[in-house]
Amino acid sequence: MIKMREYKVVVLGSGGVGKSALTVQFVTGQFMEKYDPTIEDFYRKEIEVDGAPSVLEILDTAGTEQFASMRDLYIKNGQGFLLVYSLTNYQTFQDIKPIRDQIIRVKGSEKVPLVLVGNKVDLESEREVPTSEGKALAQSWGVPFLETSAKSKHNVDDVFAEVVREMNFVQLPDQKDACCTCVIV
Amino acid sequence: MRQYGVEMARFTSAKMNKFRRKLSSLGGSTDKDAVVSKIELQNRRLSSISANGMDEEKLIVKGQLIKAASLEKLAMLCVDCFDDAGELQDNPFFPRMVFLMHKWFVPSEELAALFINLYQTRDKSICKSPCQHKPSDQNCRLNRFKTRVCYTVRSWISEFPMHFDLDPSLAREIRNLQELTCKDSANNHKLLVDISNLPSYDWMRAVSVRNSVKRSHKVSLVFDHLEPHELAEQITVLEYKIFRRISFSDFRNYAIHGKLQDNPRLERSIMLFNGLSLWVQCMVLSKSTPQYRAQVITKFVNVAKALRQLQNFNSLMAVVGGLSHSSIARLTKTASHLPPEINKALHEMTEMLSSNGNFANYRKQLSECKGFKIPILGVHLKDLIALHTALHDKVENGLLNIRKMAQLAVVFNELIQLQSTSPDIEANMDLINTLKVSLDLQYSEEEIYELSLAREPRESASAPPTPIPSEKPVFADWASGITPTLDSDTLKKHVHAMVEAVYKNYDHDRDGYISHQEFDSIAGNFPFIDSFGILDADHFARQLKTFDEVKHVDGMISKEEMKMYFIRANCHALSSGFRHDFVETTYFKPTYCEHCSGLLWGLIKQGWKCRDCAISCHKHCKELVVVECRPRGSVSSCPQSSNTSLLQDTDTSRATSADEQSSPRGTERRRQSSRLRHLTPVHQSTQTVKDSGISLMDSASSVNLNMEYNDDEVFVDEDVGSLRDRLRQSEEARAKLVSENQTLQTELASAHDRIKLLQSHIGQIRQHTVSFILDQMDILKMQRDTEV
């Protein structure tokens, strides 16, 4: 018996970094014929990570970056987060930090499952953010880092798999904590 | 595996249901038959895709079966949808979709030119008989074809009259067509393509909302007195007026470029949305006790309910977003005062607007709503962007992607229906003007959250780790597209309208002045700016002196003064005399805001201090300060303020070394010490007066100067008078030094106190830690013992 776990993943980042492209690439894959982003199950996708099948519900925040209070609701609702910047635009990389601050503030915890994503790796000639900087930032937060290309389908599935791992990983210590308190009480 | 299968089955059936629901919603103004036929067509298409491939030219059956087509073909297909009497055949949805959506792909005049081409066609294949093609000949097939072209154009005109009113080059093309019909002396054709009697869509050109009819009946403009439904109605009117201005090309530009630059109408709408959310949060947080805050929340929940009834989902989202924002949601004390039914209602509305299942709940409710409704802008913008990302405008052989056109049309129908409907609400322009100014808040999320923390501090025991705000104006940066500052002209206009409204409703004796009490009640609508109410003698007199109107310092406010105040408060200081050079400052004693007299809260960087005149204020007040900037160095008439500022400076200079205490006891100590400090300058000045009777104008900075003078020239001048003078000066300097000494000693004492307190804290923490470790060891021992 396989139990399907459901995860809510929110894709965040400033405008124009390719959040939609990444999401669309991941959820549609080969079924471009049935493309309709207004139906309920459009952003649901099954993914098998480390042998365990699970269902992801992805919230693409493209187009709503400017709506401040919606962002807060999104974060409240999400379990895992992809923080996307465009490696061809340094400003979008700098925008990432305040987004993480907000996530931590809303969630009230530093241990939020998230993955740092540098998108548009296909535009190597226009790169403004060196891989090392992305890596360093991710390291300082203790989160995985990947460079992707929604256009050439590079690493797209991997970032979603990675965020699932993060969600599994971050949830584990919580359960341990629960056990501990039981013992003490 | 069985569970997996069931899950999949559920997905599929849910998908089908959603699909059907969506299809039934896209009808809009088209009738049921069209929807049904669309479902059938879609199903047929899905089943025959592989057979059909991309070669659309051969398989056209009119309507949605087309995957891609050239623009010429599209125009032809539209004409084919009409019969000789101008009635729509087969697929009524198709021409409307083309009229609506062609602008995504090409300028309107291109489509119009194609209709003209069709009208001019001399294609013999249409009418083979030896016919003269005279306009009067009802049997001539070419003639009948021309009539159908004209019916097509007429349908376009009647469906989207604004296209023709707003697009001069399109209007020119259509007039060309009309001339052609004149040449043909085909009067019936000429009438069909007439665009001279279109309604004006001037309102769509302007960014701001024009004031229409002024109502004469009186209503309360005070937030506390406003009925929730009344507030909801007027918010809806405002929302409607701003939302419906967003044009097709505004949406298109945003979906394609994702930027708000050069998109003022969309930007205005988003500003209103964010302003509403912020206003809700500010109104709640402006109340000092949990009970009051709970009352405000209750009121806004009722406003939200009313918004739902009005089918204004966009404002509903903004209000609910504000109420469930983390800065409000974290207020547990406030939440405990909320009635359960309010909690329940808020929860239900949050569920309804939740992003779960791709906003499934919201989409369902929206599709069930009939008549006037305002959709959530953000959700549909998101759909547009997702569609645009996934589908290309053209397919590989250069044909237009009609599938994309059809799907975009579904979203657009939702967004632009406001241009043709209106709410059944009587607009109250006075209230709307007041709202407009109230909603124009300029706080960042960070500031609101800090305020929330100040209202109900974290409980230290379970405090989650706080992210230390790395750089300061973070969120403002993120939403960098928006500049929520209005230009001064717009602002003046808004303020003018609002002040007029206020006077109409509150100046009961019609003498052109309102009293302080009345003003206080109005000021309650503006969270944190309600300090206008404390337009006490000090601020106000100074302001009035500048304009030689001293006679009204009796607490009466005239229209002009109020306007001036608002404009000055909002515009970044109109004259340079009011411009302060503020720097963020950390205070080590309770300091009060010059503008609103409120405490500068927080541990570090509590407020902003002017480098020149050393007044202090909140970050959000610093733009509003109306006190003139009088630099310390110059001889001023207020020595006390410059003395205090000197003390503040010594405080600030030690900022780096001092540790601050957040415990209530610490704050109390500091408050005491500051009280002592406040006494010192007073003491010093009385001494000065007693000793020499010298004027109070000498500022602290001149003391040093005097002392140098004493040291260098004491033996040169033999004149007794000057000696006496010098004696007096040195005595005065001594007095000042003594007072400074006293101050420093008080500070030293308070610093000692602080150290003691810190030490006791360390002791406590040590104790706690040790006892905790001991406890843990005990438990471990017990466990081990039980195991053994």
UniProtKB/TrEMBL annotation, chain A:
GO biological process: signal transduction
Source species, domain of life: Eukaryota
Major enzyme class: hydrolase
Predominant location category: membrane
GO cellular component, one term: recycling endosome membrane
Enzyme nomenclature, EC number: 3.6.5.2
Gene Ontology molecular functions: G protein activity; GTP binding
Keywords: Endosome, GTP-binding, Hydrolase, Lipoprotein, Membrane, Methylation, Nucleotide-binding, Palmitate, Prenylation
Family matches, as InterPro entries: P-loop_NTPase, Small_GTP-bd, Small_GTPase, Small_GTPase_Ras-type
Membrane topology per record: Lipid-anchor
Cellular compartments annotated: Recycling endosome membrane
PANTHER family tied to this protein: RAS, DI-RAS, AND RHEB FAMILY MEMBERS OF SMALL GTPASE SUPERFAMILY (PTHR24070)
Name of the molecule in the record: small monomeric GTPase
Automatic annotation (TrEMBL), chain B:
Gene3D superfamilies, per database record: 3.30.60.20, EF-hand, Ras guanine-nucleotide exchange factors catalytic domain, Son of sevenless (SoS) protein Chain: S domain 1
Residue span(s) of domain Phorbol-ester/DAG-type: 579-629
One BP term from GO: Ras protein signal transduction
Region (Disordered): 633-684
Keyword Oxidoreductase: no
GO molecular function: calcium ion binding; guanyl-nucleotide exchange factor activity; zinc ion binding
One GO CC term on file: plasma membrane
Keywords: Calcium, Coiled coil, Guanine-nucleotide releasing factor, Metal-binding, Zinc, Zinc-finger
Domain called N-terminal Ras-GEF: residue spans: 62-203
Family, per entry: Belongs to the RASGRP family.
PANTHER family named in the record: GUANINE NUCLEOTIDE EXCHANGE FACTOR (PTHR23113), RAS GUANYL-RELEASING PROTEIN 3 (PTHR23113:SF252)
UniProt-recorded name of the protein: RASGRP3 protein
